[in-house]
Structure formats: structure tokens, C-alpha cells
Specification:
The chain is elongated, with a radius of gyration of 25 Å. It has three domains: about 5-65 and about 90-175, Rossmann fold (3-Layer(aba) Sandwich); about 185-295 and about 340-360, Argininosuccinate synthetase, chain A, domain 2 (Alpha-Beta Complex); about 375-400, no CATH class. The chain is built from 13 helices and 14 strands. It is α/β, with parallel strands linked by helices and about 400 residues long. Helix 4 (about 95-110) crosses helix 5 (about 125-135) and helix 8 (about 240-255) packs across helix 9 (about 280-295). The protein binds arginine.
């Protein structure tokens, strides 16, 4: 085995990665470079720097990836209306390839031949990190301490922290925190009482949305502008991708939009229960479907809906940088050429409903569909032949069955 000279660690400054940092330094006896991505998790990143410094890290990288995250990962995924198992907006799944991309970039820059991450051996995130690193640089070795060390539970982790004088964070109520993953797209909460799917999630689990019951009694109407499938403005005001999503998170959160309590199937094989809060993403999904409804051809829209579950599963399973994801993305992106216009959304007590849509590229024809007299040449008699031919095989089938 060749000795590892330098490791780049994906470091949040939280309990797990603080312990991993110490463990890597002790186990490999080499320099560890920390990389902390600002994905809009809403935590201060100053403490991460201070903790890394205290652990003797010389090269500390804290990088603001918010714009790249939203424009190059969240928005492309939104163009597909991607949902895993019909409900999950993939907030954690979509962040991993971006973090992996920068881990690899920093490793190359500092001449490290190994990267490390704090994902456990039971989850999806280890798979996502590692498949992405494999796809971007097969020469880089990946260290996953959770699969190597003798720590087997959160309890043992806390003991290790105590022995090594690592500060154990607690939540507002002084208890050990849930397993939380947050970024500009969502907050995901797992573990503790949530591990029993029969238990109702307690109120204090929720971080960025109010209970719809407590949301304002008056609805709020907002407009979202789209250009070629991507949201570009809110209430007529142009915004950068990260600013736009941040703004919608605030609006949606106030109205209790985007809560999800889900039992999902992990790639690795087990079922898990989590609470998701995706206020801005939930609004954007409704709005994007709204603008597509008037700008996409029927067959194009239906084809998108057919491939969507496959595309979402690829992202969930960690295949963002795989050729088949890129092929599907090319198809999806091509479909968005005319997906431009404006959608009005009503936010009210947990719901985000499309209430109107307009587009300079609309395929909608009031003249064609109207119940009234219309100027457009449409011969009602054509429908008779259309139905007769579509019914041909059904009449044969029924006759044969003796109906
Ligand atoms: N189950 C979600 C996924 O696989 C979230 C995983 C990370 N979240 C967490 N709270 N640790 O995408």
C-alpha cells in the first residue's frame, strides 16, 4: 500500500466531520485539507473555520457554491420536474455531485491523491459522493471513515468525541441533534424519534416552514417569470438563481409550503423515514409545470413525464455524472426551448397553486378550444371519423368477446 500524503475532507464543522478530521489525522498521520461548501445551509461557516484551525488544519477551503448549485444542478433538475418516488424533490441527492466535483478539483490543485467524506455506510450519500468522484477522476482514492473505523453508532461517536475533547453540539432543547442535511433547496431531517414511521413528527423538527395551520389567513399571490425552462424573476424582478430560490424559500416558508413526511427506498436497500422541507422548490415545481402546460406540445410533455421517474432515480442513486443522465438531460434541455412566460401562484396554508399563466410562445388557442362560435377552421365532422377509427378495434374486440 502506498502511503497517503494528503487528504481533502468534505467538512461541515459538525460533530461527524469534526471527529473524522481528528481520526484521519491520527490514522494516516498526514496533512488534511478541509473543504466546506456554502450551499446556503443557513449556518454560519465561521465556526467551521475556527474548528478546523483548532484541529491544526493549515489549508482551509470555504467556498460559496450557492449560485453554481442552483444554476447548474437545481435548475437543470427542475426542467425535468424531477421527483423521486412521486414526492421527493431530491434536495440532498442533487448537492452531492457538486460537492464531489469541488472535492476532486481541490484534490488536484493541492496534489492530494485521496478525498474523504462523512457519510455513513448505510445511506445514499456515500454512494453519490463516490460514484461522482469515480466519474470525475478514477485515480483518486476515497476514504469513508464510517465504513472503516470501529465506531458503530451515534452513541459510540459521542463517546469518542468526549475522549478527544471535541465539542458535541446540541439542539435548542439541549438534546443531541437529528441527522440534518440542509442547503438552498431543502432541509432534510432523519433519525431519533423519526426512525419509527408510526410516530408523528414533533413540531420542533421543522426548521424553515411554519405549520400550515399557523400560516397567514390571507393568501399571497406571486408571479414567476421563466425563460427557456428556468425561473428568472419573481414579481417582475429579475434575480440570480440563488437569490430567486432564497426569496421563494422565505415566501413559501411563511405559508407552510413544501413539507413532506416520507418513507422512501434507499438505493442501498433499506427503507427510511425523513422529514423534508422544500418551500421554494415546491413553488418552482408547480410554476414550471404551469408554464410547460401552455408551451409544450402534448407528445413532448408526455415523453418528459415518461422519462422523469428514470431521470429522478438516476439522481437519487448518484449517477449525475453518468452518460445516461447526460443523455436524458440533453433531451430535457432541448424540450425547454419555448418554455418561457409568466405564472401566477397563490400561496395559502401549505399550498402553492397555479392560478394563471401567460407566454409569448403559447400553444394554447382559445379560438380552437372555445365552446362558442370560432373563427378557426375546425370541422366537427372530422371528430366523427377520428372516433370511428379509434373505436374500430374496440368494436372488433367486443364482438369477439360476445358482448
Ligand atoms: N434520505 C435523503 C436522501 O437520500 C436525505 C439524506 C441526507 N439527510 C440527512 N438528514 N442525513 O437524499
Amino acid at each position: 500500500m502506498t502511503k497517503i500524503e494528503k487528504i481533502v475532507l468534505s467538512y461541515s464543522g459538525g460533530l461527524d466531520t469534526s471527529i473524522i478530521l481528528k481520526w484521519l489525522q491520527e490514522t494516516y498521520g498526514c496533512e488534511v485539507v478541509t473543504f466546506t461548501a456554502d450551499l446556503g445551509q443557513g449556518e454560519e461557516l465561521g465556526p467551521a473555520r475556527a474548528k478546523a484551525e483548532m484541529s491544526g488544519v493549515k489549508d482551509i477551503r470555504i467556498v460559496d457554491l450557492r449560485e453554481e448549485f442552483v444554476s447548474d444542478f437545481v435548475f437543470p433538475m427542475l426542467r425535468a420536474n424531477a421527483l423521486y418516488e412521486g414526492q421527493y424533490l431530491l434536495g440532498s441527492s442533487i448537492a452531492r455531485p457538486l460537492i464531489a466535483k469541488h472535492l476532486v478539483g481541490i484534490a488536484r490543485e493541492v496534489g492530494a491523491h485521496a478525498v474523504a467524506h462523512g457519510a455513513t455506510g448505510k445511506g445514499n450519500d456515500q454512494v453519490r459522493f463516490e460514484l461522482a468522484v469515480n466519474a470525475l477522476d478514477p485515480s483518486i482514492k476515497i476514504i469513508a471513515p464510517w465504513r472503516q473505523w470501529n465506531i458503530r453508532s451515534r452513541m459510540q461517536l459521542l463517546e469518542y468525541a468526549e475522549q478527544h475533547h471535541i465539542l458535541v453540539p446540541s439542539d435548542k432543547r439541549g438534546e443531541a441533534p437529528f441527522s440534518i442535511d440542509a442547503n438552498l433547496l431543502h432541509t432534510s431531517t432523519e433519525g431519533k424519534i423519526l426512525e419509527n414511521p408510526a410516530e408523528v413528527a414533533p413540531d420542533h423538527v421543522y426548521q424553515r416552514t411554519v405549520d400550515p395551520v399557523d400560516a397567514p389567513d390571507t393568501p399571497e399571490i406571486i408571479t414567476i417569470g421563466f425563460e427557456r425552462g428556468d425561473p428568472v424573476s419573481v414579481n417582475g424582478k429579475a434575480m440570480t438563481p440563488a437569490a430567486l430560490l432564497t426569496g421563494l424559500n422565505g415566501l413559501g416558508g411563511r405559508h407552510g409550503v413544501g413539507r413532506l413526511d416520507l418513507v422512501e427506498n434507499r438505493f442501498i436497500g433499506m427503507k427510511s423515514r425523513g422529514i423534508y422541507e422544500t418551500p421554494g422548490g415546491t413553488i418552482l415545481l408547480a410554476a414550471h409545470r404551469g408554464i410547460e402546460s401552455i408551451t409544450l406540445d402534448r407528445a413532448a410533455a408526455h415523453l418528459k413525464d415518461e422519462i422523469m421517474p428514470r431521470y429522478a432515480e438516476l439522481i437519487y442513486n448518484g449517477f449525475w455524472f453518468a452518460p445516461e443522465r447526460e443523455m436524458l438531460q440533453a433531451l430535457i434541455d432541448h424540450s425547454q426551448t419555448f418554455v418561457s412566460g409568466e405564472v401566477a401562484i397563490r400561496l395559502y396554508k401549505g399550498s402553492a397553486s397555479v392560478i394563471s399563466r401567460t407566454s409569448p410562445c403559447s400553444l394554447y388557442s382559445a379560438d380552437l378550444v372555445t365552446f362558442e362560435e370560432s373563427a378557426i377552421a375546425y370541422d366537427h365532422h372530422d371528430a366523427e371519423g377520428f372516433i370511428r377509427l379509434n373505436g374500430l378495434r374496440l368494436r372488433r374486440w367486443a364482438a369477439r368477446n360476445g358482448r
